[in-house]
Amino acid sequence: MTAKAYQNRVIRWIDHRLPVFSYLDHELNEYPTPRNLNYFWNFGSLALVVLTVMMLTGIFLAMNYTPNADLAFSSVERIVRDVNYGWLLRYIHMNGASMFFIVVYIHIFRGLYYGSYKAPRELLWMLGVIILLLMMATAFMGYVLPWGQMSFWGATVITNLFSAIPVVGQHVVTWLWGGFAVDNPTLNRFFSLHYLLPFVIAAVVGLHIVALHQHGSNNPLGIDMKGKQDSIPFHPYYTVKDLFGTSVFLLIWSAFIFFDPNFFGSPDNYIPANPLSTPASIEPEWYFLPFYAILRSLPDKLAGVIAMFGAIAVLFVLPWLDTSPVRSGKFRPVFRVFFWLLLIDAVLLGVVGAHKPEGWWVLIGRLSTAWYFFHFIIVLPVLGKLERPLPLPTSIAQSVLKGGAATAAAGARMEKP
Questions:
Q1: Which pLDDT score, from 0 to 100, does residue 403 have?
Q2: Residue 67: which pLDDT band, with cuts at 50, 70 and 90?
Q3: pLDDT at 323 over 80
Q4: 107 is known to lie in a ligand binding site
Q5: Same domain, yes or no, for 90 and 165?
Q6: Closest to 246 measured CA to CA, from 49, 37, 36
Q7: Is 213 marked within a binding site?
Q8: How far apart are CA 187 and CA 37, in angstroms?
Q9: Does pTM surpass 0.85?
Q10: Do 299 and 219 share a structural domain?
Q11: In a domain, 32, yes or no
Q12: Count of domains in the chain?
């Protein structure tokens, strides 16, 4: 839409000099979108909603938080008890971290199933993995800020992992701590980075959206749009669909906030940090547990750290590991079996990470870790060469209209006496 099409003179004047309204109209209104997207495509917009809420609540919380080792714990308690609606801000932010990871993990597995990482969307996928890494760093640093027992000892354990790096490991740990132990300089550094990184995430999300709109959204069929018959405008069709999905999601989020705000938290984090008292069990938040299980699956510390970071690094090269020319798992019957095995394996790794590394859990963790890497490094390249996929439809419109015709025919048969 050109600037002349706007009736409002002010908007027309601004858009002629800075075409922001034309850009938004094209990207959010007229933008052609595949006509067969299902509700799994809602999770991208949901992630943006959560990021926005987390940034806003984080800014207001930072106004009342004191990044000092002697005062941090009591400042968080003051936010909850004395600041007007501080309890609400904290519980939204605290549970929002879990909601963010739930949404992003579903978004990732949707991409894995429907092949959203394949050409020409490789860079789009890689930007998504970068967002995941930034989320993990931000969430870890945010978990340290309440300065409870689990915050303190979690920071101690995780930062000590870098000591496994040959030669420079201990120097890296000292640099992260800002001294020779987790203390006030560490808290200040983590607070600064926790405040900064969401803005970095927002910038990468912007690049992610630009890359998405360059070649358009993938779709459940995994085939490209072949004309206007395969697409519909983003507004009002998908804005309404996104609003409905967002409403349902906000109800679920609100249920945790108002009825069980500490569901995802640890009771130990309501005890002030004490360097002289180690908790009986130190474990990260649930969204880190699969990677924590991979870390502990190997007896050597350095090997465990490499495996943990390798579990994410392998996602960067996924577009080249999957050699199948077919994107969607809907037309790959053997791939579907291995996809569900991967999903079960990821859940199992999370369960293993929540248990102490002893007994059967050690063996299960090692087998689950081996299968995780086996899936990406061996199964996908070999399966792409050997599997015979089902025939693909010639167009999105053909598949959609064929399905509608079949439904109408079935309804007509049911109405016959």
A1: 63
A2: very high
A3: yes
A4: yes
A5: yes
A6: 49
A7: yes
A8: 44
A9: yes
A10: no
A11: no
A12: 2
